[in-house]
Amino acid sequence: MYKKISLVDKDIEELINLENIRQENNIELIASENYVSEDVLKAAGSCLTNKYGEGYPNKRYYGGCENVDKIEIIAQERACQLFKMKYANVQPYSGSVANAAIFMSLLNPGDKVLGLALDSGGHLSHGYKISFSGKFYNSYSYSVNENGILDYDQILKIAMEVKPKMIICGYSAYSQIVEFDKFKNIADKVGAYLFADISHISGLIIAGIHPSPSKYADVVMTTTHKTLRGTRGAIIMTNNEDIAKKIDKCVFPGYQGGPLFHQIAAKAVSFYEALQPEFVEYQKQIVNNANAFCNRFIEKGVKVISGLTKNHLFIIDVKTSYSLTGKEANDILASLNITVNKNTIPFDTESPLISSGIRLGTPAMTSRGFSETEFIILADLIDKALSNPKDIKLHELIKKEVSKLTSSFPIKRNYLVK
Ligand SMILES: *Cc1c(COP(=O)(O)O)cnc(C)c1O
What we know:
The protein is an alpha/beta fold. The chain has helices spanning 10-25, 38-44, 66-83, 95-106, 132-135, 152-162, 180-190, 202-206, 241-255, 261-274, 277-299, 318-322, 326-335, 363-367, 372-387, 392-408; strands at 27-28, 55-56, 59-60, 87-89, 112-116, 138-142, 166-169, 193-197, 219-223, 234-238, 313-317, 338-339, 341-343, 357-361. The longest helix is centred in the last third of the chain and has 23 residues, at 277-299. Pyridoxal-5'-phosphate (PLP) binds at residues 32, 94-96, 99, 123, 125, 170-172, 197, 199-200, 223, 234.
């Protein structure tokens, strides 16, 4: 468990400590969440939050940047080393803002972009109507096929028709491998930029257990807080010097003001951790766990979108499997201290707020030390709960089992031996 904090402001002190207890007592299956080390927390909570430094290392609009310059350079170097890319911008406040800066650097307003549809597992910022990406750009989408899998011939066909200026690959809810080489072929055929958004799978890519886009994509973006297990934020990378210059300009002053140096330092600390051999083992375990977890559901006859997982997450069709909506399944599991998120399934007839699926991910509980054994137990508990949505007595028993699991696997403070 993280250390309890003490503040003069008792309102916020209490809520942070309650949240700490909630995180400790809940089984966390949201695929985009994780538990950072206490070193990452220390950097994120450091005096660096006081510092202003618009601009880039050695080219700032403010004085007193001698320390933060060095921190930002270390973060850039580690990012390049981790992803085998030449240029890194480590300032983006979040993945969505990073994506806005990428759009701005490669496109003009109104230009055509092609991304995966939201209900197929794409992200809001990949062209969805209510996001900047669908409002200020002319956005088109491809979908997964009826088996929940990307069909690259179909994507090529759509790309030939649409002739987008940029194609986006890399997703939020897709359990198969993204074949960046195939996307590169498609992008080349239609003369489009290729943008790989590896927010979810960046940890797997670092560990070499998912193909890397570094040789294929014009631009790569990852959030730093998902499988990468760092602080909240994002980084943008490229191998092209001209694109790198444009990206720097579009991050600042295009979309952002002063960099958050506490976050940049915390990113650097998580990159340090990701460069260690323990990180590779961790990522392998995430994937092994997801595989065991998913297969247990399949053994029970549960419908998994695309039929399997090859990464850290998968989507269950709870409507077909349990006659529940995603929202209902989410609420039942929440009452048992199991945190998931409802998720649309391909060609969902429910709205995103209701949906017909739930998304399950293994990164967070793998950080707490769960192995295949615990994930199989957990699949059985979830399956029992969703098969008997009204059995209060059974739910009480399941809640006790959940509590046994969380107390046996407390949140770790460190992932490396000091
Ligand atoms: C999480 C995610 C983002 C956005 O990250 P935020 O930091 O929440 O803005 C962008 N793209 C993909 C594919 C993601 O999964």
